[in-house]
Amino acid sequence: MIIKRYENNEQMSIKASEIVKEQILEKPNSVLGLPTGSSPLGMYNHLIAMYKSGELDFSSVKTFNLDEYCGLPTDHPQSYHEFMNKNFFRHVNLKPENIHMPKPDKGDQESGCEDYEKKIRQAGGIDLQILGIGRNGHIGFNEPGTPFSSRTHVIRLHQDTRQANARFFNSIDEVPKAAVTMGIKTIMRARKILLLISGESKREALYQLVFSSVNEQFPASVLQLHPDVIVLVEKSACTRLEKEYPFINNQLNI
Ligand code: GLP
């Protein structure tokens, strides 16, 4: 695992967009796994700018989003469908048929999850999976205790996660209690993983990512087992880690 530290969110986002750009230039029909949340927002802005300046072409790219809330209409302002449309999809030339998002409320949920896995397989698997991290170590919406063998599934959200995401709703009562998420195994099958960690509230999560044993109570710890993970962190998230582990030239190789 390579961990790179950046002065601020903007610097981190530029680097993230460059990694995505390299991936697409190397393989124009790349399959990307995409996250929501505030951490990847700057990266999406830079990717949009690269598209507008003609540096990037998304016409052959396929995308699979990590997760979606249950119980929100897809056009709800806080649904991840809406987040992705507003912050990325509608600004680039991705073909609508190449965009995939979990649709938790369409029909039988279990077969919907299986279908999502099937579509990922049919696309040839995920080349680059981009992730954020929850304060409790969740990736996607895989909460602590999720089996490492999990594939796309419905999960009950922990109170801490609902609390963290309440900032986007009028109150915590409006935050859905469940979501559909790619499983840990789905994520681990990606050929390359890019994890973005931004903000002081993630300092404990970053520390655990590096120091915790690989265990299901801290889902992101599974990434220690993946052969190709790059973690980009904003300086303010590093305060705990750097006390114990000095970065050399802003980089740690774990
Ligand atoms: C949500 C998403 C995660 C995301 C996390 C952190 O829980 N389901 O995929 O990583 O939020 O979001 P933020 O980057 O806003 O802290």
Layout of helices and strands:
Blueprint: E1 2-6, H1 9-26, E2 31-34, H2 41-52, E3 62-65, E4 67-69, H3 80-87, E5 99-100, H4 109-122, E6 128-131, E7 153-156, H5 159-165, E8 178-181, H6 184-188, E9 192-197, H7 203-211, E10 229-234, H8 239-244, E11 251-253
Parallel strand pairs: 1-10, 2-3, 2-6, 3-5, 6-9, 9-10
Antiparallel strand pairs: 1-11, 4-8, 7-8
Helix pairs in contact: 1-2
The structure holds 2-amino-2-deoxy-6-O-phosphono-alpha-D-glucopyranose.
The site of 2-amino-2-deoxy-6-O-phosphono-alpha-D-glucopyranose (GLP) has 14 residues, from α5.
- Which structural class best describes the helix and strand composition? alpha/beta
Q: Looking at the structure, what is the overall shape? A: globular
Q: Low-confidence stretches at least 5 residues in length (pLDDT < 50)?
A: none
What series of H and E elements makes up the topology? EHEHEEHEHEEHEHEHEHE
How helical, in percent, are the residues? 25-40%
Strand order of the largest sheet: 5-3-2-6-9-10-1-11
Tell me the number of structural domains.
1
How much strand? Answer: 15-25%
Rounded mean pLDDT is 95
Ligand inventory: 2-amino-2-deoxy-6-O-phosphono-alpha-D-glucopyranose
Q: What is the number of E strands?
A: 11
